[in-house]
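Section 3.1: Structural characterization of target chains.
Under the original work plan, the team committed to producing a structural model for every single-chain target entering the pipeline before any wet-lab resources were allocated. The record below documents one such target. The sequence was received from the expression subgroup and is listed exactly as submitted; it comprises 208 residues.
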Amino acid sequence: MTQEHLSDVEMAVAVYLDTLVIPRHLDGNRAAQQDEFRDICGAVAQFAPRHGFGEWWQRVKSELKSAAKTRAWPLMSEVQTACRNVNARDRANNAAGAARDVEDVMVQMMADWFRRCRSQMPSCGRASRTMALIRLGVLADVSEARFYGFDLDPAEMERARYMPPCAAERQHDARVRADLAATRDRMAPVRDDVIAARERTIPQGSAA
């Protein structure tokens, strides 16, 4: 840590301690007060971030205040504990933020894939991602998600079973019915010929 940053730490700690009461065992002992001040500054400097010190220090002070039992200066060990707690929460929040960023990217990739391929992106299915796609309007609802084979949790899958067919499913059914009708129409002449041929055929074993 640079000397400039250490000066920021010293100033912040000095302002903070001025709002508190000097511990009884340090009262009247200027040298001991200076030693304690330096120890507390060292504890803060040990854990302080290189950037964003002011905002971080506000959280440390809140941590110290919530843990304080008196209005006296905190012990160096209490300052270290407060700093550790704040840093641990920051790491957890950063990890959670990174995870959310990854999920946002995955959901966007799945949305792009669905628009191109009309299916769930292989090896990427999760119920939470499916619900995110619904919230974004990429999928209409859980009924459409089920029709296209997207992952759903058991409760949403059960709900989808009893929902009316989605527009995509209705369109699919209409195409299938139309294809079947067209196939029957194409096969009609052949079917008539087959029936006529059967009627002309004498079954084996019949008398001449």
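The longest helix spans residues 76-117.
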